[in-house]
Amino acid sequence: MIGYKRLNNSIGIRNYILIMSAADNVNPLAKKISSQIKNSIYLPASYGRGQLGFDHDYFLTCMAGLADNPNIFKTIIVSMDGDSADWIVNKSNRKKDIYKITFMKSFGIKDCIKQALSLEKKINSEKKKIKKVKFTYKDLVLGLECGGSDTTSGLVANPCVGMFVDKLINNKGSAIFSEPVECLGGEESLIKRIKRKNLKKKLINVIYKYQKIAANNNVNLTGINPTPDNIRGGLSTIEEKSLGAISKSGSKEIVDIIDFGNKIKKKGLNLLDAPAAAVENLTALSAAGCQIILFTTGGGNPVGNPISPTIKITANSKSFNKFKDLIDIDLSFLLNSLDYEKGSIKIEKKINSIINKSKTLSEKNKFLETNISRFGPSI
Description:
Blueprint lengths: L1 E4 L5 E2 L3 E6 L5 H8 L5 E4 L9 H16 L3 E8 L3 H9 L6 E5 L6 H19 L4 E3 L6 E7 L3 H20 L3 E4 L9 H5 L5 H20 L4 H4 L3 H5 L5 H9 L7 E5 L10 E4 L5 H10 L4 E6 L12 E5 L2 H6 L6 E2 L9 H16 L5 H4 L15
Parallel strand pairs: 3-4, 3-5, 5-6, 8-9, 8-12, 9-11, 10-11, 12-13, 13-14
Antiparallel strand pairs: 1-2, 1-7
Helix pairs in contact: 2-3, 2-11, 5-10, 5-13
């Protein structure tokens, strides 16, 4: 496998220029700039101004994580005032790879675009010097996601992913699973996979945190999860859904729990504390450093991440036949045999293909989205 070596020694499987809005007031400008720069990704900001305390800190940390993702070659941050860009840069581990355009220091939209095109020339000249290197699974960080789950997810798709994750960990690679709210009811099986007492305590706190948030808002979490589409797909209890979701993490030791917006620090299997909503969770996985994401779906959740290529997997033949333009892997042929090894091999072949520059269907169809989770009010 061949990748792109970054200044911090991480390896990217894509080589994008990221055009990032520092706050929502310059989204149209950043979008206009991105439309004129080849091989660029436009990353809007949902908020960015008036956020408070830890909510603002989470936002900045997550934005910096997205800029630091190994699949990003260089980042151009567009801001109104300059300060909002600096706050993101100060959180970054790759400050030398970030350029800034400040609207208030410019002479308007056309001048900002002119600055961006000048930066594009500089970036393209630097691209010629980039080191392409051979890499192995040891350098891979794999994100794990499930959405629109049904019976086939827990029976086939997730266990097949879990078997590949075990192989990845055995080869010194790393994987991140998330959605701790969907571990509720299966937490005992996860505790057995943690050695450190303080990490076991953190796991329980992270899982039950979401139950407390729901209770504080007069919501019975066990009354709304499984969701209506999960129930239509044959999942009857939150425990059944959770055990199916957990199976995509495989069987290896959980070495760390990553706080929202933060990057992976320890090689091996990690749990990320992030909300379960697909777009928000994919964004958090990408900010944590995942070069690629496996996304299992029973009913056909269609969305992918623009920075981290997202491979969609189903074991539901009806969903695959309906959504052939968005689902990459069909594992429904395994429903009778439950041959997880065969499924994991098919997943591995697709991963290798995507790493070697094939595109996922969500990339081909530009069915891509990001959104950073919101935890508090603005003033």
